[in-house]
Design a protein that fits this description.
- The structure holds 2 protein chains of 2 kinds.
- Chain A is built from 12 helices and 19 strands.
- Chain A is an alpha/beta fold.
- Chain A has a single domain (5-206, 266-442), classed as 3-Layer(aba) Sandwich (Alkaline Phosphatase, subunit A).
- In chain A, a hairpin with a 4-residue loop joins strand 5 and strand 6.
- In chain A, helix 10 packs parallel to helix 11 (314-338).
- The longest helix of chain A is centred in the last third of the chain and has 25 residues, at 314-338.
- The radius of gyration of chain A is 23 Å and the shape is globular.
- Chain B is mainly alpha-helical.
- Among the domains of chain B are: 138-152 and 162-304, no CATH class; 393-545, no CATH class.
- Chain B is 53% helix and 3% strand.
- Chain B is built from 25 helices and 6 strands.
- In chain B, the strands form 3 sheets. Chain B has a two-stranded antiparallel sheet. A two-stranded antiparallel sheet of chain B has the order 3-4.
- In chain B, a hairpin with a 2-residue loop joins strand 1 (247-250) and strand 2 (253-256).
- In chain B, helix 5 (105-114) packs antiparallel against helix 15 and helix 13 (310-325) packs across helix 14 (344-355).
- Chain B is globular.
- The chains are: A alpha/beta, B mainly alpha.
- At the A-B interface, helix 6, helix 7 and helix 8 of A face helix 10, helix 19, helix 23, helix 24 and helix 25 of B.
């Protein structure tokens, strides 16, 4: 019914499986139900189901850190150089820890850790506009006027539980965080606004709006007053008011405000030397905060580094951003490896599109969705593997193309999430979590 | 020194003026009700017809409707629906002191807000809401699309109350430059956002919008496959798109190029393209056969807005209802056909809308006059809810929440007489708040629960805390209340009026008087700040009811 080909792979007689099917059916209905969207996160069935998903495979990844190169990084000046070719326009390349594979200059630190990564050089998208491209790469779908697809971070929060058995805790802070987002942080879409990313800025500036403006005793006073008002409003409206889950949301907000887990945002708790290695920049701090957040069960952290939209003066603009990217992403990989956390944490470095092989009149490169790069580390992604290739002449044909939908199916697979599972949009259309097929070559 | 005297005079005058609302002394009636005698008889007949329909339905289904909501609760609904804000204390006092207001409170409020010559709050707010349906809230392509111009054009149409069929016809059929003819931005909004063409308006995207916004049908589902439940086929969709197949951008703006043909790959992926001629998916007899017109969009526009094309009136009425009540008559708002039969209430309202000559302000009046709009938001059971025998609780949009916060911080009506600088600062604050609260864009009529960041923003956010703080601006309500309210009871009552548009119950009054008891100076101001915080963080403040 809701499931496609994947379902016959598992034994039909498995009673848990059977129960799960049953629950899934309910959950689907639950999301589709008008007005009930706000309740979805606290549905005990959903929670039970998600816990089941987590326990299914203790080897599966638990958190995603999405390094977002906003504006469109140039594949030629980052992960996919073609030194010596005409399309390089003088850009140079360096050796890496994978024999025979080069990165562009400016990524010297990362080059030393490349053997830990899977590098895809053949991402293919159909969207050449910033907003639409971001939508495509974050959701795995092209924009559609009849449905808003959930972003990968929202899907992870929806599918994975709030209780983290491994850590013996329940996550009290938002489980999908976007650090220094541009205009398009990941959205919950058809899963509901409660799956939108929680937006926060340079960790040095603290987190917006989480500190009560009054001391705790006055806060209590205010809440008691609020109770009086709620009681009056509840008269003859009890069911309606309960359905708003206003009170629960307020309670959750307060739980977050007083949670010790908020310290995960505070990077100054780390040693000065580690902070220095990440880089004394907002982006470096963002990456460090991302690692800390995954340690309290946050399922997805987007860390955005903007400024790659080099329509003019491409080489210099790309170089400037690389200076921020290189130390932060390299340290993040090393830091996770040192903590033995790479198995359960996937790091993906991605852009909304790449840039044109041809340099324009202003020495800039324009938007190019026809073949660009993604770097993945951790989970069960292979170590030291390069997938696909772009044309050294600058043509649109790529070797072993990975379509945006395939990329998403591959990512969900790494979390043992059934990417064929279908949510029902409000137009009653079933929409799979990802429309592509996982690329098996990417896994160990 | 002269400046100081000037300030003293202004400030003193203002305090006197504000003191006047607080003490609420009887005043002369102010002549600010616009006459609405014209079309009165027709309107009364329509209103009676809708009233009968609902009451008979409730009786037949043995539904006990919720009691009639009190005047202030209805004023709050209307303010939120029409202005995106709540009534000010100034307006509430005008209402209480105007003897004519008692005769028909609902129409008094509606007329005050939608018929005013100088107050553009209604047209601006409603214009933005309609723009969401017509062009979404994206910024589109640089240079070729001017969303602000489109919205202000739409606001002008609403302000002048131009027949709505003409407004829609102009959007579909106009030629010209997007800067000079703002209505053409309806077309240019579809540049490079669809998938079928580049650098020109996308016919398929436009066909989808025409279906959803003007007809209440989702033909764009048929873009990929024949519609599963409806009679629409892919061919229907492409034929509708073909009306825009010649529409191109040029140096003189939007224009149709006669020689251009609309071609579609058939079957998809085959590489063979077939030419599709424009046609409509239903009611073909209403489409003019005369193809000699310069512009096929004019044929489409006439067909869409044809008085006998009931889809059009129903789609517009359904959305207007949703804008006013918070929930559409038929859900989802842009897909009337998926539920089978259209509700009889929608049908009757749509008929009256056509009869009135697509008069939007009349439609607003008519909806406000229905017994459904005037019910309490009490839980009378699911059947009553379905039959509109109680008013639904719906989440307010971010603009409405911030509108409420800003209005509550001033005893006077803010906005239409406000200075340019004030508006600039305010608009900036609003856009930041809206962004943080979470703008749902085109999805705004979908029902949503609240989110944690929204609560955090209201509990701890800068904007609200500055508006209520004990040592805030002397021109804002907390300071004025603390210094001018004659006693604690009055202060509590006004705090309720400016935030929740109601008076406290006796239990509430008792509780908060206790909290204020024997507090003086700063302590009293703090207690007031706490009261305002509690009021603005309540369910009642953030939900329409």
């Amino acid at each position: 019914m809701s499931r496609q080909s994947a379902s016959f792979l598992s034994p039909q007689s498995d009673p848990l499986r059977h129960a799960t099917e049953h629950l899934r059916f309910h959950r689907r209905r639950f999301i589709a139900g008008a007005g009930a969207a706000g309740l979805a996160w606290m549905n005990p069935l959903a929670e039970l189901l998600a816990r089941d998903a987590e326990q299914k495979n203790s080897q599966s990844a638990q958190s995603l850190i999405l390094i977002w190169l906003g504006g469109g990084a140039s594949q030629l000046e980052t992960f996919d150089p073609h030194p010596g070719a005409k399309i390089a326009y003088g850009s140079q390349a360096i050796k890496t820890s994978i024999p025979g594979i080069q990165l562009a200059t400016g990524l010297e630190q990362l080059a030393g850790e490349l053997h830990r990564t899977t590098l895809i050089r053949s991402i293919v998208s159909k969207e050449g506009d910033h907003e639409r491209g971001t939508y495509a790469l974050k959701t795995g779908y092209r924009p559609d006027p009849t449905a808003v697809h959930p972003s990968i971070g929202s899907i992870l929060c929806h599918e994975l539980p709030q209780e983290v058995t491994r850590l013996g805790l329940r996550t009290e802070i938002p489980r999908f965080v976007s650090i220094m987002p541009n205009q398009w942080p990941g959205r919950g879409g058809l899963l509901g606004a409660e799956y939108d990313a929680f937006k926060t800025y340079d960790p040095a500036r603290g987190i917006p709006d989480v500190r009560a403006r009054v001391p705790e005793d006055r806060y209590e006073q205010r809440m008691t007053g609020l109770n009086q008002i709620e009681q009056a409003f509840m008269q003859r409206r009890r069911r309606f008011v309960q359905e708003t889950i206003h009170r629960e949301t307020l309670q959750q907000a307060h739980t977050m405000m007083t949670s010790d887990q908020l310290r995960a945002f505070d990077v100054t708790e780390e040693s000065q030397s580690l902070q220095d290695r990440y880089g004394d920049r907002p982006f470096g701090r963002g990456c460090l905060a991302a690692r800390r957040l995954t340690e309290v069960g946050v399922r997805c952290v987007e860390v955005t580094l903007n400024g790659w939209d080099s329509h003019a003066n491409n080489h210099n603009m790309q170089a400037e951003q690389k200076a921020a990217l290189d130390p932060a992403i390299t340290t993040l990989i090393q830091d996770l490896a040192d903590r033995d956390a790479l198995r359960r944490t996937v790091v993906v470095c991605l852009s909304e599109f790449g840039r044109t092989p041809k340099l324009n009149g202003l020495e800039g490169r324009d938007h190019w969705p026809h073949g660009f790069s993604a770097l993945m580390v951790g989970g069960r992604f292979r170590q030291g593997y390069v997938h696909g290739a772009t044309d050294p002449e600058g043509g649109k044909e790529v070797e072993s193309p990975v379509h945006v939908g395939d990329l998403h199916a591959s990512l969900l697979q790494a979390f043992d999430i059934d990417y064929t599972y279908e949510n029902i949009s409000r137009t009653q259309r079933p929409i799979a979590l990802a429309e592509g097929t996982p690329i098996t070559d990417l896994y160990q | 020194m002269r400046n100081l005297i000037f300030l003293l005079v202004v400030f003193g005058g203002l305090l006197g003026y504000v003191g006047y609302f607080i003490s609420a002394s009887p005043a002369e009636a102010r002549p600010d009700i616009a006459p609405w005698e014209t079309k009165e008889i027709a309107f009364q007949a329509a209103s009676l017809r809708v009233e009968r329909l609902l009451e008979e339905k409730w009786q037949a289904e043995q539904i006990e409707p919720a009691p009639k909501a009190d005047d202030l609760a209805i004023a709050r609904r209307l303010g939120l629906a029409l202005l995106g804000s709540i009534p000010s204390l100034e307006e509430l006092r005008q209402f209480e002191q105007d003897s004519r207001a008692k005769e028909d409170p609902v129409q008094w409020w509606v007329s005050k807000w939608i018929d005013s010559e100088e107050d553009r709050r209604f047209s601006e707010y409603f214009g933005e809401r309609w723009a969401r349906a017509f062009v979404g809230n994206h910024n589109g392509v640089l240079l070729l699309y001017r969303r602000r111009r489109f919205v202000s054009w739409l606001s002008d149409q609403l302000h002048e109350n131009r027949p709505f069929d003409l407004v829609v016809r102009e959007m579909i059929a106009s030629d010209g430059l997007w800067t000079d003819k703002p209505q053409t931005n309806f077309i240019t909004a579809a540049i490079n956002r669809g998938t079928s063409v580049k650098n020109n308006p996308d016919p398929e995207l436009l066909a989808g919008t025409v279906g959803r916004a003007f007809l209440g049908i989702r033909l764009d589902c048929a873009q990929c496959h024949d519609h599963p439940f409806e009679a629409w086929t892919q061919r229907d969709f492409y034929e509708l798109a073909a009306f825009f197949g010649q529409t191109k951008t040029s140096l003189v703006g939007i224009q149709d190029r006669k020689q251009a043909k609309f071609k579609v790959e058939d079957p998809p992926g085959s590489g063979t393209k077939v030419v599709i001629e424009p046609d409509v998916p239903f009611l073909g007899e209403l489409l003019t056969k005369d193809k000699s017109w310069a512009n096929p969009r004019r044929r489409l526009a006439d067909w869409v807005t044809h008085p006998e094309n009931e889809y059009f009136a129903q789609a517009i009425v359904n959305r207007t209802w949703a804008l006013m009540v918070g929930r559409p008559l038929v859900e989802p708002v842009d897909d009337l056909t998926s539920v089978g039969e259209v509700s009889d209430l929608l049908q009757v309202l749509a008929e009256e809308f056509v009869k009135s000559g697509f008069d939007m302000k009349d439609l607003i009046r008519l909806i406000a006059a229905t017994p459904a709009f005037q019910r309490e938001s009490f839980d009378m059971g699911p059947e009553a809810e379905k039959a509109w025998a109680s008013f639904p609780l719906t989440r307010l949009r971010p603009e409405q929440v911030i509108g409420g916060v800003l209005q509550a911080s001033s005893l006077q009506t803010i906005d239409y007489e406000a200075s340019f600088l004030f508006r600039l600062a305010r608009d900036f604050g609003i856009s930041d708040f809206v962004k943080r609260y979470g703008d749902q864009g085109e999805e705004e009529l979908r029902e949503q629960g609240g989110t944690i960041p929204q609560r955090l923003l209201m509990m701890n956010g800068k904007l609200l805390s500055e508006k209520i703080k004990e040592d805030g601006s002397p021109f804002e309500s907390p300071q004025q209340l603390a210094t001018l309210a004659p006693n604690d009871a009055q202060m509590v009552e006004i705090a309720y009026l400016i935030t929740l548009t109601r008076r406290p119950t006796w239990q509430e009054q008792k509780y908060f008087l206790e909290a204020l008891k024997e507090k003086k100076g700063r302590a009293r101001k703090r207690a007031l700040e706490d009261l305002l915080w509690s009021l603005m963080n309540s369910t009642e403040f953030s939900w329409n009811h």
